[in-house]
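Lab meeting minutes (informal)
Scribe: AK
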Amino acid sequence: MPERIDFPALLAGHTVVIEMINSGDAGLPVLTQLLRVVQPALGATGMAFVEFGPTGGRVIAATGAAEWALGRPLAVDDPDTVCLLSGPRVTQVRVSDLNGKLAGELAGSGLRRMVVSRAEIGGHTVGSLHALYPGDDEPGTEQQGVIAYLASCVGHMYGDQSGLPVHGDGPVVAALADGLAVVDRDGHVRLWNPAAAQVTGRTVEQALSRPLPFPLPPSGQVRDHRMPDGRWLRITSGDLPGPGTLRVVTFRDITDQQRRDHDRELFVAVTSHELRTPVTVIKGYADTLTDHWDSLTDVDRRQAARVIGQRANELARLVDRLLSSAAEVGPGDDPPTPFDLGEALRSAIVDLPAELRRRLVLRLPSDLPKALGHRPSLSTVLTELTTNAGKYSAPGSPIEITASGDGHLVAFRVSDQGIGIRPEHVERAFDRFWQGESGDRRGYPGAGLGLYLVRRIVEQQNGWVSLRPRTGGGTVAEVRLPRG
């Protein structure tokens, strides 16, 4: 150990560190450079800095004979950790006086003494700076003074949010559920907490000293921003007090909230549009019957009653779809059981509207295997598929229902000869409220809920449903269920 510290070398090296900071460097590069210039000036064999958080410490920077310790954790209840965090702020420690595992590791590397100083901010310890020596000679008071000064410099780096803490696990910052960043006057990140890394997918190393991955709103304002991957973030910002021009930014993922808001707005729009037509027709015919009963013929009255009945049925089905789409649709907790698919299809057809039944062509094999699922829900599935087929095909054109089975699956198909479906729409058609047409140009009524409900019901029975264009024109809807 040298009798005196090489102060010219220390000052020259410290100047380099300050220039790095002035050039925009931060975090680990600056801290590591500080240790590199301090080690020879103090005559130390190695230098290390331990960053402390609520769950313990970790060696985040090390040089010389201490490089092997880089990344080593120190548990919060480790005896060596307790020793380092208690007592005077700066002290000399004989390795043999330590009682934890660290003591053996240090001795095994030929290190016998160290000068330690805690780096603190407002009485809160953020880390500890260590100068390590191989001999038994006690370091002088000058070494302790320099280490204490340098630990204060490191503490200032933490207080200035210069890319520290490295692991973002300060007791407050790490506990935040929202992403938190501190940016400098150039918009470069100076602090990046764990939640920020989780929300954006950018690690601390990828984020520090770089611009934010989203626009920075003016101080005191809130902005919703859509990321390139489609996720939405809600971002707020505010100026930090003090002489610097730092700004704190918080953000959270609101993708689910945006989706719920969109679904709610779409639900209101679709519901108001689809309910308006049957309600208007029912009211119109009811008013006609009330105001002109005596002047109407029996044929006119029957026709009005028939239209009111048809529109009331449409209204009931629409309300049922809307309620089902907002709730859990399916068999609930009832276990799937084998059932006769052919018989279930024939029974379900009986409940369809008369004009739709007249168009159906049923071709079911006599040896159709049983399906495994929930028979009562099949009526809803068939109603939606046949209604959809009838809506998108010419009145009076046939709608064919066929079925088949193999060793694992049983399937039935609903085929129409209508306008068909574009290949790029075969999956989107199952989205809730999706319509092939939109706005005032829509030529076909509907809320866009039928196929959405069908897919939910079928998949809850471990089956699946698909759409495909029909050869010769039209659409084929196919439902596959496990064989019973």
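Next up, CB showed the second protein from the same session:
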Amino acid sequence: MNSGFALAGRTANEISAVVEAGVRSGALPAGAALPPIRTAATQLGVSPATVAAAYQALRQRGIAESAGRQGTRVRPRPAVAPARGQFRLEVPDGVLDLATGGPDPRLLPDVGPGLARIAATSVPTGYAAAAGFPPLFDAARAALQRDGVDASELAVTGGALDGIERLLNAHMLPGDRVAVEDPGWANLLDLVAALGLRPVPVPVDESGPDPQRLADALRAGARAFVLTSRAQNPTGASVTADRASELRAVLETHADVLVIEDDHAAELSVQPLFHLGGTTRAWGFVRSVSKPYGPDLRLAVVAGDATSIGRLTGRQRLGTGWVSLVLQRLVADMWADPQVASAVSAASAQYERRRSALVLALRSAGLSVTGRTGLNVWVAVPDETVAVARLREAGYAVAPGALYRLATPPAIRITISSLSTDDVPALASATAAAVGGHSLISGV
């Protein structure tokens, strides 16, 4: 327990509120351990059941997590913002940022021409006209169908995570189990915790999730499965044709499971798409535009079965209502612009050169690396803290794997967005030195 924090309260609500306030103020940092239940109960003069209920509420709100024999601790990225802002990896001046995970701003297409075109064109205004922009739906449907995705039912959401959250809410209840990739997207793991769902880890290799471990997760009661189609964050994995066939064989025996596929890289990935949707009755395929076109373009198209899309759009009407029609028009315009398509294609090729060069250099140095496509490379290490600290001293900021792992071994994530191919030899040498010269067994 942090010396600047004192647990207090007489009821479960009061105790959980005090802990939440401690997280917001910074008195309880990420990873801080909460007192054991019986110790806290004696200190506060309440029953152990009261403390247990408070801790359960904190876990359900995504603020705390169970640490096994180590008790309960604050999550690495709790679902409450501290007074000084969101939890972020700090990158000191003079250190190359290979930790953030976003696209290279220099490779994003220019939105200016598209904004000018839609500004010069009249557009219907008012609530009735805002639900969906037909040209956006037409373009999305055509692109998805080329990739083998049934796009007869479509919705538009405020980005990938918004789409995934709405699909989960359409089918799941707090306490339900969800099969998730391990390692996997940190934001998704945080979302699952914040929704009160229980993650069941499914290990990932370069070809995608492990089919046997998925079968184990489903037998253990997982009612949903969320996976990344390609350019998986953090490992750079991409589901292959053979792996997709194996995963479909597992899912065919669990027809009631909700399957959600995240295709966040879309046009940036050099790997083809192998789609799982339709194997089960409930499914959703989410394709967002932030990585290829710009992080501020908070839009994703979601295809799925009629029930899932109907529930998603129905609930959307009761909240945000719709995604900005201006944004929908801008994305539709960019999808139709040959110059934008050329810029995205050039960015994809540039990312491929950077990633391939780094993977080759790291493997030549004897390191265990995954990264078939996308913006990230996953490097196995004996000790994440040591590796991250040594690389920072050498001038490189990388992300610790603990942000993305549930039960898989230690690793670091290196984002190649800010990397040039000229930087690769020095970075590979520094990474090998940071790992300590160990020759690690291949695999995640």
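CB comment: The radius of gyration is 23 Å.
No objections, moving on.
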